[in-house]
Structure formats: C-alpha cells, structure tokens
C-alpha cells in the first residue's frame, strides 16, 4: 500500500515534481498497511469529498493557497471552505500541508490535525537561463499571470491605460475564464507603442526570456501559496512589486521588495522614480535555494515519513 496522488489534471505536473518524487521515495522506503490519497488544491478537496465520506479513505490535503472559493466569494466562500476543512478533519485527513505560516495559522484554528509547511511547491528551473539584462533609458516592467481580478489584472490594465512614455510594459499570460483581459491587453498594445502583449508563453525558455528582458516584475494577487511566478522572477534576479497578501508578502519581506495594498498597486507602478529604488539582487541566489524543487522535495519527504511512521 502507498501514498497515491489524487487527480491533478487542473494543475501543472511540471510544478509537482517535488511532491511526486517525495511520494515515490517514501513509498519505496516505508510501505503502509493501506493507501492514503494525497489531494492537491481546494478544488480537488471538494471533488474528492464524496469518495472520502462514502469509503472512509484516508488523505493528506496539500493546499497550494486556499483557492478562489476562499478569495472570491466573501464570507460565504470562507464559511464553505472552513466547513470542508472540518469535514476532512473529522473523517479522513492525517495531515494538512500549506505553503507559508499565514495559511498554517488559519488552519490550526479550524482543525486539530497536524498542519505542516513547505517552501511552496518547489521551483523547477529546468530550461531556465539567467542572462545579463542591460537596462535601457526607460523602465521596462513585465506582467506574467493567469489573468483575473484575483490576480490583479484590473490594476495592471488600469496602469497600462495611463502608462507614461518613459515606461514600458510587457504583458504575457491568458485569462482564467473567457478572454476579457486578454482582449483588453491586446487592444491597448496596438494603441500604445510602449506596451507589448505576448499572449501565452508556450515554453520554459520563453518564460526565461521574458524575465531576462525586464527590469521590474509585477505580481499582484489577492492571495497566494508559494507564488511560483514570483519565485521564477526572483531566480532570474528581477526586482518586483507585489501586493501585501499572504504568500506575496512573505517573499517581499525576504527579498526586500515592495508589497502594497491591491487598491494602490496601479498608482505605485506608475511612479516615475521606481528605476532609482530597485533593490540589490546580488544575494538572491542563496535566499531562493530553500524554494527550489530539490529542497522542497526533502520537506515533503519528511512530512510523509512522519505520517507513515507515526500516524498510519
């Protein structure tokens, strides 16, 4: 019997290498009496609940942020999320895993089940390459995201409409739902020569080239777990501005970059003096190491070992 990863078709397998490798290792080292489902994300926690309740299947729940249920639907959404946590705690879960201490403190108020933390999901730098970026006379900003209001796309769009001629903006990504923001970003890039819209980046090398081409990365969000895109920018040595939400603020404090309220984000990035306040990134290589896939794999492995030896 073993740890088995539950359906993760709604996420990227590439960003789960640390988890997959840790599961394989612990299954080889510590076979168990029964199978345990490892459920990644709030969406899958909801999807798996009928099976859990009907069969008594034991689980480990890995929350990579609390999801849109928690962030987009106000008090009602949070109440439903809290109910799912309590149901899993009562019927199946041997451990919860989150990506920073803020989320851990929230869960510890809802459940007596152990809550563990990792440094995100594990940043894999395969096909990434750092290349020296020569700063031009204009500040060149970049925004790479799945577009949605929860990802601050409305604030970036607001700034794009008022972007002065001495600033440049490169936008890449796609909408979580529909094409509202993609159409708006494409349209404004056709109107303004200092805005470039790349659409969806298809390869890892494209992502790396994006980060190597900018002076400042924009990463607003209502709530995040480990914030992989922000970690990717950090690995490339790109200063950033983010929002003061859980998951973003953790990285902002560690790497001495601004974290502002969402409603002030567009005003902040329009300030003309940003070029003169970019942080020194020379020591970032050592600081990002705990977030790399190899390090996070060891964190996962330690958690699964504890569960297999002490709990099941």
Would you kindly provide a written description of the structure presented here, covering whatever features stand out?
With 312 residues, the chain is an alpha/beta fold. It folds into two domains: 3-123 and 292-311; 139-288, Rossmann fold. It is built from 13 helices and eleven strands. It has helices at residues 17-29, 42-55, 67-72, 74-91, 101-108, 153-161, 180-191, 204-212, 228-235, 248-254, 265-269, 284-287, 293-311; strands at 3-5, 36-40, 58-62, 93-98, 115-117, 139-147, 167-175, 195-199, 216-219, 240-243, 259-260. It has a six-stranded parallel sheet, with helices on both faces. It is globular, with a radius of gyration of 20 Å. The termini are close together. The model has no long low-confidence stretch (mean pLDDT 91).
Summarize this, please?
42% of the residues lie in helices and 18% in strands. It is built from 13 helices and eleven strands. The strands form two sheets. Strands 8-7-6-9-10-11 form a six-stranded parallel beta sheet, sandwiched between helices. A five-stranded parallel beta sheet has the order 1-2-3-4-5, sandwiched between helices.
């Amino acid at each position: 019997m073993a740890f088995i990863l539950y359906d993760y078709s709604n996420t990227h397998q590439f960003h789960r290498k640390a988890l997959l490798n840790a599961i394989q290792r612990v299954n080889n080292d510590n076979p168990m009496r029964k199978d345990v489902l490892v459920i990644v994300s709030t969406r899958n926690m909801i999807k798996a609940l009928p099976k859990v309740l009907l069969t008594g299947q034991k689980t480990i729940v890995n929350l990579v942020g609390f999801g849109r249920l928690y962030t987009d639907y106000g008090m009602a959404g949070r109440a439903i999320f809290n109910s799912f946590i309590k149901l899993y705690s009562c019927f199946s879960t041997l451990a919860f895993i989150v990506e920073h201490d803020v989320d851990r403190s929230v869960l510890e108020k809802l459940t007596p089940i152990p809550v563990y933390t990792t440094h995100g999901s594990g940043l894999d730098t395969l096909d990434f390459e750092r290349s020296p970026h020569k700063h031009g006379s204009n500040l060149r900003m970049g925004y790479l995201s799945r577009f949605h209001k929860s990802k601050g796309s409305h604030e970036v769009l607001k700034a794009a409409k008022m972007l002065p001629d001495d600033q440049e903006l490169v936008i890449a990504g796609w909408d979580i739902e529909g094409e509202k923001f993609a159409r708006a970003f494409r349209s404004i890039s056709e109107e303004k020569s200092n805005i470039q819209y790349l659409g969806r980046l298809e390869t890892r090398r494209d992502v790396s080239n994006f980060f190597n081409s900018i002076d400042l990365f924009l990463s607003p969000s209502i709530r995040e777990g480990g914030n992989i895109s922000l970690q990717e920018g950090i690995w490339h040595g790109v200063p950033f501005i983010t929002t003061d939400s859980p998951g973003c603020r953790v990285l902002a404090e560690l790497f001495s970059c601004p974290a502002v309220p969402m409603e002030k984000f567009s005003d902040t990035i329009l300030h003309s003096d940003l070029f003169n306040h970019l942080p020194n990134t020379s020591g970032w290589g050592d600081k990002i190491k705990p977030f790399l896939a190899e390090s996070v794999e060891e964190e996962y492995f330690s958690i699964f070992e504890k569960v297999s030896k002490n709990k099941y």
